[in-house]
Amino acid sequence: MAERRTALYDLHVAAKARMVPFAGWSMPLNYGSQIAEHHHVRGGAGMFDVSHMAITDLEGADAREPLARLFANDIDKAVPGRAVYGVFLNASGGIIDDVIVYGRDPGYRVVSNAATRDKMLDWVGVHAAEFGVEVHERRDLSLIAVQGPDALKAFTVATSMDLADLRPFSARERGGWMVARTGYTGEDGVEVALPAEEAGALWQRLSDAGVACAGLAARDTLRLEAGLLLYGQDMDEVTSPLESNLGWTVAWEPAERDFVGREALARQRSSGPERVLRGVVLTGRGVVRHGQRVETNAGDGVVTSGIFSPTLGYSIGFARLPRGATGDCLIEIRSSKIPGRIVRPPFVRHGKQVFK
Questions:
Q1: Which long-range contacts (CB under 8 A, 24 or more apart) does 24-33 make?
Q2: What pLDDT, in 10s, does the model give residues 16-61?
Q3: CA-CA-CA-CA torsion sign (161, 183, 22, 103)
């Protein structure tokens, strides 16, 4: 099956991006230097083509009902103009996907991961049909993320839209665009869903305003420094929110709300999860990578994500560890046991170390 291309594909190629397959799409890994792109976002402004992500609109008088059943967070927080992060669970409490739900007037918009597109469409569609709710996959839209301390200023220069009064995790719709003050880097910025035929012009105007192109590689180092999880590595269908440092996204009240996975999750909450997701930093030389074994004072765990941090200058990662693991650890890297330390993420905020 041929890889899909976003509306910005030709612009990426013209900018000499290294294109790679990702979740069925041909996407830019970098435009020459992943490290430079990372620093552009931390110190100025960078833009990402994230049009491979799935955008799904739910419409109809009862659009709230399927989401109240599927979304473990409180769907009533997603009032028009507000966004809420959370997870969809299966019956055993495992994570089907992590999403952002945007309240609209009327209905809702769900932005989910590219790799779970078909699974999510089927899952949402089955439950929506019970309430007569229409589900529309918005393949006509592109999605551009503009991130960094200068992102809002550059976006205003490029579009003449003043977003100074747009609160974090709020959204504004205008002329077929949805501009949301959200992101996946730990920096300020916006994510813009707009008609695909208008994406190229916006990309060029942002470039003219001094926003640097950034690819998947920088997106990964930025999100991990910010303590943000990646579906399929840090969480999946056999790990629960309580095992993935996402217990804060579960709305237990009102007690009578019977969302999918609640019963299994409540049992785990009562006994306490055997495994938890923690941050690790390497104090010796090497690079933390997915799948490496971690020795702790409470038993062995495994690295779920790892990078060399361009901001900190050493390697960091997430690891799923036995509950109660603390302090120093050993991470097995190429048959050597390299010393590290268990910490509480995030690792970086606004370009500075924040973990303890």
A1: 24/52, 24/114, 24/115, 25/52, 25/114, 27/52, 27/215, 27/216, 28/213, 28/215, 28/216, 29/215, 29/216, 29/217, 30/214, 30/215, 30/216, 30/217, 30/218, 31/213, 31/214, 31/215
A2: 999 999 999 999 999 999 999 999 999 999 999 999 999 999 998 8
A3: negative
